[in-house]
Each structure stands twice: as C-alpha cells, then as structure tokens.
C-alpha cells in the first residue's frame, strides 16, 4: 500500500489492552468458530423455499417429500391467485387474504390492538407512494419532511426525487443515538423559515445506528407530532431484529393507541414493514406493507387510487409477506426446522454484535454505541485529516478497500455531525462461518487503523 494521508490530531496511545485485544482476535480467528452451514443471510429457510417452489411449480404438490403444512399453505395461496397462477395480476393493494394475515400479525404483535385489512397496503418494498401523497411539489412553498441524522440513505434520495425539503434532526450519539424532542423542536423551528413541514420520518429500530426507541421516547415524539400537527412516517422494518439485553420493540401504532382519546384518534401515522429485513432477509423478493392509522376516509380513498395506478405488487413478494406474517407454529410439521433456523440466525447476531462491541471497546480512536437492533454497526472514528481532498471517512473507506479488500461505507452517506466521522458495516455476514469472517474483518479494520497513524 501507499503512504497514508491520514493524520491524528492527537497521538493515540497503542495501549497494551488493545494489543491484547488484537491477539485474542487473532486466536479467535485461528481457532475459528463454525456456526453451521444453514444460516446464510438471504433466503435459506426450508419452509419459505418449499412454499415458494410449490406455488411456482404446483406439480410439487404431488411430491411426497414436501411436508403437509407446506402443501396446505401453497394450495391456499394459489386459491387466492386468479387461475391458480402466481403469474396473474392481483388487487392493487395486495391479495385480500394476505392483507387479513398481515393485520392479524399486527394485532398479535401489538398485544391485541385491532388492525383492519382495509388499512393495509401491500407494496413492493419502499414507501415512496406515501411520499407522493404527502408532498406537493407544485406548491409555492416546498413540503418539508423531518429526517434523522444519520439515516437510511435511499430515503433521502426518494424525498429529493419527490421534491421535498429535507429538515434534518440529529440523533444524540453520546446517549446511544437517542431521539431528543428538543432537537426535533429546534429542527422544526428552523425548517419553518424555508418550507412547510408536514411529516416526521422515524426509523425505529435505527439504520445505520443500531438503536431502538424506548416506549417513553415514542410517547414524547407522538405528543410532539400531535402539538405540531405532523404526519408520522414510522419506518419499522427492523422490528423483528432486536437483540439488545432488556430491549423490546414497541410499534408507534401500539403506543399511539394507548395515549388517550384525543391523541390516539387524531395523530396520523403510516407504519412500514418489509420482508427484506425480517429474520429471513428476502430483500430480492420485494414484499412489504404499510398500515395507515387515523387517515381521513377521503385521503385513504385517494391513497388507494394512487396505489391502483401502479398495478399490483409482485406476487412472489406477497407470498413472502404471508409467510413472514404467519410462520409455522408449534405442532406444524415444519416447525422444528423453522425454529432451529431462526434460532441459529439469532445466535449468530448475538455472537457477532457481542464480539464487535468487545473489540471496539478496546480499540483506541474508535467508539461504538451499544448495539440493540437492526443489521448495522456505525462506529465513530476519531481522526482528522491533513489534506482535505475528500471527506475523511470516504478516504478511510477507499484506503481500507485498497489495502485490505474490505468494503465498508463512509458515514457521510448517512449524515453525521460536522467534523465527526463514521463507517458503517453489516454485522450479519452472508458467509458459511460468519463469526470467523467477522473476526477477519475486525482484525483488518483494527490493524489498518493503527497502520494509518
Ligand atoms: C430503514 C429502512 N427502511 C426501508 C428499507 C427498504 O426496504 P425494502 O427492501 O422493503 O424496500 C431499508 C433497506 O435497507 C431500510 O434500511
């Protein structure tokens, strides 16, 4: 590799602790920790694969090797498809039976809070339809949407595409990326000087931060949205990937429903979930849903019309959604294998996130907030640059890639406070032995970080 252009503003001590940590990491890597060969990230679940295969090739329904619950599920899904074929159009907001299945899933998730299939809109992933409804690009005053910093980068692009003004509010990194209402208030006040803020986008659990909001924090945000008459866009796609100790996911819908009669019947909310970010991570199948709460019936009607202009969501994604919302239950023939697979994924996540936090706790010059949920790690790199030919974190990522072949993303793509620098990487690795691979990766980040000073 070439000479480094990075320069620390203060010398960083290469402590004995850190050297020990690297040594442990190396041992760990040499010993390896095989964690089984069936937990690759992406579609690896037998139940999902078998139902999808039988829906696409119904001759398999005659195959004795398929479990009974797989056949029954595939048959019931095919009955909902015109001509018994997954190649037919469906209703533009999704297959009715699957919308029922999703609303039952939501009711179970929220401990009995009712959900109606009429408020469920199945979609092929992203939430841009909702943006079309909220953002009026032709108005003389631009529509504003409050978004967290850092946030999921594609959402910013979608907002810009619709002509929205972005009003950033910063999450508080030092306190585990918490969302502070004072920060929202400040951002709204500033936003009102240049645009017309109508919506507040929340990402909970957070991408790329790995944080999850407490119930109290959600209540505060809802109260703020009620006072300021803001529409809440709750991106809750990481809801099933929660692993921090004493950590529980509360949906905005559930918390809202328990907040007293005026607030619970007036604050407008769209909540999103997706098969992309559930335990099986089938992002290529393109299935997701939006639940609308407290919308004026005329506006909901208009939303349906916008949806129908887009034809129907892909049937394969709808089937995946049905399987996510109604997985095998105890007593079903597929249950033992299914639960073993889910458990293996959970174990991998726990091992990986535990390992990452151990290593970063020892590493000088890098700090990482507690990881509680989601797929990502967003550690802060405490450095400054002599030559500012590009963003320091971008430069770090490029050099890391050149020197080690390791691909991580720079924090500037997600937003960060001025003069703070981060990298983002996924802690669930799509490889045969994730923990082993993770150890190599952390070792590369660590070694390279030291070499750079
Ligand atoms: C917070 C968040 N929302 C939505 C999405 C998009 O999900 P989908 O694949 O359903 O479009 C992602 C994808 O990374 C995400 O991180």
Automatic annotation (TrEMBL):
Organism, as annotated: Sinocyclocheilus rhinocerous
CDD domains: AAT_like
Catalytic activity line of the entry: L-alanine + 2-oxoglutarate = pyruvate + L-glutamate
Cofactor needs: pyridoxal 5'-phosphate
Lineage: Eukaryota, Metazoa, Chordata, Craniata, Vertebrata
Ranges where the Aminotransferase class I/classII large domain occurs: 69-416
Listed EC numbers: 2.6.1.2
Quaternary data: Homodimer.
Annotated keywords: Aminotransferase, Pyridoxal phosphate, Transferase
Encoding gene, per UniProt annotation: LOC107721111
Biological process terms in GO annotation: L-alanine catabolic process
Pathway: Amino-acid degradation; L-alanine degradation via transaminase pathway; pyruvate from L-alanine: step 1/1
InterPro entries found in the cross-reference section: ALAT1/2-like, Aminotransferase_I/II_large, PyrdxlP-dep_Trfase, PyrdxlP-dep_Trfase_major, PyrdxlP-dep_Trfase_small
GO MF, one annotated term: pyridoxal phosphate binding
Name of this protein: alanine transaminase
Similarity comment: Belongs to the class-I pyridoxal-phosphate-dependent aminotransferase family. Alanine aminotransferase subfamily.
